[in-house]
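Objective 1b. Sequence-to-structure analysis of Amino acid ABC transporter ATP-binding protein.
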Amino acid sequence: MISIQNVNKSFGDLHVLSDINLEIPKSNIVALIGPSGAGKSTLIRTINALEEIDNGSVVVDGVEIHAKKTDLNKARTNIGFVFQSFNLYPFLTALENVTVAPRKVKGLGKEEAEQKGKELLTSLGLGDKFDAYPSKLSGGQQQRVAIARALAMDPQVMLFDEPTSALDPEMVKEVLDAIRKLAKSGMTMVVVTHEMGFAKEICDEIVFMADGKIVEKALPSKFFSIPDTERARNFLSKVLEH
C-alpha cells in the first residue's frame, strides 16, 4: 500500500531524512515515534508530497507520488491528512467544512455530500454540531471535524501528524477514541504520536526515528518491552518514566 524507498531530504545543510526505507501493507497501522527533530513529521508529509524529496521514491497504492507525471491533486484525494492544528475554515460550519471538498473536488451533489457529512460527524460524536462554527467548538471537537473532513474524500490511507499535540489534556482522549474507531475499520494509517500507550494499543508496527533515520522497527509488544537499540532504550526510559 505504501512503499518508501531510499528517501532523502535536506533543508540546506540539515539532512532531515537519511536513506529512509519503509513498507506499510494495506490495513496496517504504523506509529512514527522518536524525539523532537527526528524527522517524523517531515517523513509523513512526504507521503502526500507536502514535502518534496531530494531522491528516492514514495509509492501509495501503486502511484509514485513524487514523479513529475503524477497528478498530485488526484493522488491526494486518496490520502487523508490530519494536521497538528485543525486548519478548519473558520467561516464555514462543521458540516460545511466536511462537505466542501467532496462537492468541489469530487463533484458530489449537495444533498449527497451533506448526508455523508452528517453520517461521518455523527459517527465521531458530533451529531449535534452540524451547524456550529469552529470558534464554538472545543479543540477536541475541531480535530474530530478535521478527521471527518479527511474521511469524506474516501481515502485509502490516513495520515495523522501529532493529532493531539495542540489539545488540552482532557481533550486528547476523545480524539484518540475517534482514531481507535477508525482503526477497527481496516483503514491503512500512519500516525506520528507522542502517546506511547495509544501507539502500543492500536498499532501493528512501531517505527522509531532519531536524527533523520529509522533506528528500529518492531512489533509494539517487542519495542516497548525489549527494544534492540540503546537509542530506543534511552528514549523509552525518558518517556515512560512518569
